[in-house]
Amino acid sequence: MEHKAYWALKFLNFDAGLSREKRKLQLLELEEMRLNAYESSRLYKQKVKAYHDKKLLKKDFQPGQQILRFNSRLKLFPGKLKSKWSGPFTIKEVKPYGSVELMDPQSTTPERSWTVNGKRLKLYHGGNIERLTTILHLQDP
After folding, report:
1. N or C: which end of the chain has fewer CB within 10 A?
2. DSSP character at residue 56
3. In CATH, what is the architecture of 58-141?
4. What is the pTM of this model?
5. Residue 138: Cβ-neighbour burial (10 angstroms; 0-12, 13-18, 19+)
6. What is the pLDDT of residues 95-127, one digit of tens each?
7. Is 72 exposed, middle or buried (0-12, 13-18, 19+ CB in 10 A)?
8. How far apart are the first and last CA of the chain?
C-alpha cells in the first residue's frame, strides 16, 4: 500500500519547493499578461484619439460672416421636423478662447448682440432656415 501512496504523491507533485517555484512562475505570467493588456489598451486609446482628433475641423470665424447657432434649449413641445439650428446671425466679434459675439441682422432693436461658445456655431452657406418659434397662449383659469 505504501508503494502506491508514494507514486500518488510523486504524481501529484507534493514537493513543496517545486510547487512554490511553479506557483511563482504562474503569478509572474499572470502579472505580465495584465501589464500587456494595460499597454495594448493604452495604445488603442491613443490611436482612437489621434483618429478622432484628425477628423475634427478647426473653426476659424471672422467678423461679418454669416453663421447658424445650435439651439439646444429645452422645448415644451418639440417639433420633430424643425431644425435645431437657428439663424442666420452675423459675427460681430471673435473673442479669445473660442467665444463669439453675435448680432441678429433681422432684429428690430439696433446693436442687439450676445456672446456664445464657438463650438455651437457653424458656417451658413445660404438657403432658408426655419426659425424655432413657439407661441404659447396662456389664459387665466
Report:
1. C
2. P
3. Roll (2.30)
4. 0.47
5. exposed
6. 888 888 888 777 666 667 788 888 888 888 776
7. exposed
8. 100
